[in-house]
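in:
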């Protein structure tokens, strides 16, 4: 038995896109965006070195972001571990202070 899900999704998407084109602003925005995409593709197809540099720069930025996030997560986990021991430290400090005041009052 053949599934009708994928064709129905595609038909729904095409119908929605067609209906949205009835709005003048949507049509204008779509035409402007399409022109920009066409110009960008045309530019980079003739300037492949720039495209390669752009991709390399973006990859370096992504790797740097990943390294920063990894470092930040490690730091947060360290602080979480410190925070877990904090209640027992505070409890012992309060107990010691209470004992010290109790001894000084007697």
């Amino acid at each position: 038995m053949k599934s009708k899900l994928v064709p129905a999704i595609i038909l729904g998407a095409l119908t929605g896109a067609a209906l949205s084109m009835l709005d003048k602003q949507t049509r204008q925005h779509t035409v402007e965006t399409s022109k920009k995409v066409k110009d960008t593709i045309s530019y980079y197809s003739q300037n492949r070195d720039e495209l390669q540099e752009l991709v390399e720069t973006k990859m370096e930025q992504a790797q740097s972001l990943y390294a920063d996030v990894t470092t930040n997560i490690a730091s947060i986990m360290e602080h979480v571990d410190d925070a877990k021991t904090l209640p027992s430290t505070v409890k012992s400090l309060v107990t010691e202070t209470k004992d010290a005041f109790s001894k000084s009052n007697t």
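note: The CA atoms of residues 2 and 8 lie 12 Å apart.
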